[in-house]
Write a structure and sequence with these properties.
five-stranded antiparallel beta sheet, 416 residues, alpha+beta
Amino acid sequence: MRGAMELEQEPDLLLQEARENVEAAQSYRRELGQRLQGLREAQRQIKESASQTRDVLKQHFSDLKGTLGKLLDERLVTLLQEVDTIEQETIKPLDDCQKLIEHGVNTAEDLVREGEIAILGGVEEQNDKLWSFTKKASHIQLDSLPEVPLLVDVPCLSAQLDDSILNIVKDHIFKHGTVASCPPVQIEELIEKPGGIIVRWCKVDDDFTAQDYRLQFRKCTSNHFEDVYVGSETEFIVLHIDPNVDYQFRVCARGDGRQEWSPWSVPQTGHSTLVPHGMPLSSRPRPFCFVAYIFETVGQPDRRDSIGVCAETQTGFDSLQRDQAVCISTNGAVFVNGKEMTNQLPAVTSGSTITFDIEAVTLGATNNNEVGNFKLRVTISSNNREVVFDWLLDQPCGSLYFGCSFFHPGWKVLVF
């Protein structure tokens, strides 16, 4: 009886085991397929980057050859012009001397012919011709000869060409350009924040000394990257990020004392599922809503620190702990028109989100017991706690201004 039951159960067990093996094989196949896809992407990255690198190298050296040929041609023209200038300036005195000598030769030849005729003439004519010839010869300085410079005193042009420049150029050419298997900087982390993404990068080449970094991003549906940050920091929060939309980020660096940028890092894709704090979270109308997110507190807190809202822009103040303003200090103290409230919120730290919700309560004149004629209902929330109070102003205001002040550097605040 037992054997019959075992025979009946055995096909069911075998069938269940076969199904499990099929599911395991399907899962194994999916995993292998994903790894194969990743491997193909890696191969594609190598091939595409190698092709792009070849194109960049060919174009660069083609431009370099053209530039070097142009520079050599320009230098040759300059040297030839120098030869022409020296030749023209030094040959002119010799040409003038040549003209003077040739004129003297012609004069002497004429004088010789005239003298010979005078000597060969008749007796009666001879005296007159001799006298005329002698008088003419006396006016010509036959003992005055022009000075002809010695060859050692005359310029002898030559070209001094140092063949060592070929070795210098050859050394520079042989050292010019490098091929790197990976960029010197890479994106290390993408952290989603409400309405933004914090991008952090790091240097992966120990021999590379970075002076500045350059961060770019784009929507995955866009063909063009755009600059979003240039500076010495190794992280930056990119704002105005649409929720649930993929963005690509890449970063490069500029070496210390250099002008050109390094190759771009491998693009990293990230997105944020968090909506900005400034978006309405309920249907209740909120005419004014400000949100401050503290994402880093490198600086030391101070009781005079202030994060808040003011009704007017005034110069000469270093804090919002003053009239016409409401604020919270980094120790959690709340100030209204410069006076500290009894209620206190938690201290502001890294990761704190401070929300200011402000709506009008009354307009125009109020009763005589109230100082102002414009009342706003203010709700300040911080770290799951909030305080609610009425803010009295001297006159109605159509705009409010957010501001913050810290007495020690290093605070990083994101405002919505």
